[in-house]
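Let us walk through a complete example step by step. Step one is to write down the protein sequence. Step two is to encode the small molecule, zinc ion, as a SMILES string so that its atoms and bonds are unambiguous. Step three, shown after the inputs, is the structure prediction itself.
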Amino acid sequence: MNRREFLRTMGLGVIGLGFAPEILAGTSVNSPYEINTYPDDSLRDYIQKINHFNDPHREDVRVDSVQYRIFESVVMRLRRLQNLVGHGNFQILSFEKGLRVADRYSQVGEFTRAELRFMEIIFYEEGQRYGFMGQKPLKKITDTIRKNDVVKIPYSGNYLYRGEPCETYQTIKKELGEKVVMTSGVRGVMKQFLLFLNKTYKEGGNLSLASRSLAPPGYSFHGNGDFDVGQAGFGPLNFTERFTETEVFNRLESMGYLRLRYTKGNLLGVRFEPWHIKVAADV
Ligand SMILES: [Zn+2]
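Step three: the predicted structure of the complex.
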């Protein structure tokens, strides 16, 4: 079966947005009046969809039933791999190293050819097919994070790239002290695979729904410098819009450190992420 046939079998043939990105690029979505007078319903539908990013839609792209068991076995194997190597190490584990470790340790087990083909197709699929319009900083499934390029952030289980990302975080930390925590730093290909496929799995195979809150592997700027921050003690609420009510958010904003990657009303097909600090340059 060639790639095209495989994609068709997976049901990945249709993009659900229904409008061209170049039309959107010149359209402001900040004013409700503009939305109401927009001649096409598609923009209003888009905004509705992003505001309710966790709701399924008829046109969402899903893993086909033929591929579902392979998809499921990939998720389970990635989870076992993370358990084996530990959460910290898994953040920066490369695809190839991950395969070698899985092969070597029976508690994970070798990735089958069908599983590898599935992962390859997911990685090289255009995010736009799901409705994800962002850029792709990691181009190859084999892209690696060199250990010498990153620094482990104490007590967080996360890494940051040396240079601007690390300096940005240190400045924030100096200003806000114990109140601010790093909730997610550098993430390699394997980690992004697990996050994206775990979410897809939780949503019954809905790839589009997953992509509204988690970038598909390769598309995450956590791969080259961005990071997430939160308020100490705020737990999972740090990853909700309620983060904007915290002292950490408000101080970051007033100090001008809040350079967000996914703003409210963004046209990238991604929900508002007030906790995600943009450091990496666009690609
Ligand atoms: Zn983030």
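Step four is interpretation. The chain has one domain: 62-277.
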